[in-house]
Design brief:
The chain is α+β, with helices and mostly antiparallel strands. The chain has one domain. The chain contains three helices and six strands, in the order αααββββββ. A three-stranded antiparallel sheet has the order 1-2-6. A hairpin with a 7-residue loop joins β1 and β2. It comes from Acinetobacter larvae. This is Type IV pilus modification protein PilV. InterPro entries: Pilus_4_PilV (IPR013362), Tt1218-like_dom (IPR054402).
Length: 167
């Protein structure tokens, strides 16, 4: 007579637990990738907003184009007293407004853990390139620096940045 097995053997339990563990590790890995990509997308959105704001401010205050370049050269601009709130009937000059805009944009970028820079684009003097970089990436276009955002206007493979060409 053959005896019928009743119940589950220990090896079957161990194998099923192993499979369950592998499946859960796969799900955790997918969740971590999703969180990392969401953070990257959020940084891109914040960078895009800051660069768009810079573009609009440059368009409005086109007379101070070089003042924006001077104040957003990659270093922290000096804190400025806003001429908007002072008791001045003449208001702000173009240079004062550029200094105020540069400082306020720099502060927004710092709150989002970004570097902000505005420089002439590679191979042209007519256009400006605005850079917003985060992580270890530097907000610049450089032929030698491996942490630069771009080389000759082309993004580097591991760069965490956005570059916007402004006319």
């Amino acid at each position: 007579m053959r005896r019928h097995m009743i119940g589950i053997a220990m090896i079957e339990i161990v194998l099923s637990l192993l499979l369950l563990t592998l499946a859960m590790l796969g799900m955790v890995s997918l969740q971590l990738q999703a969180v990392a990509r969401s953070q990257f997308a959020l940084q891109q959105l914040q960078a895009s907003n800051v660069l768009q704001d810079l573009s609009e401010r440059l368009r409005v205050n086109a007379l101070a184009r070089q003042d924006y370049v001077k104040h957003l050269d990659g270093d922290a601009p000096s804190a400025v007293q806003s001429c908007l709130y002072r008791d001045r009937p003449q208001g702000c000059s173009a240079a004062e407004m550029a200094a105020y805009d540069a400082y306020s944009l720099y502060q927004r970028a710092q709150q989002a853990a970004m570097q902000l820079a505005l420089r002439p684009c590679a191979n042209t003097t007519q256009r400006l390139c605005a850079y917003a970089a985060w992580g270890e990436t530097k907000a610049l276009d450089d032929l030698q620096d491996p942490l630069a955002c771009s080389r000759q206007g082309i993004y580097l493979p591991k760069a965490q940045c956005l570059m916007m060409t402004l006319y």
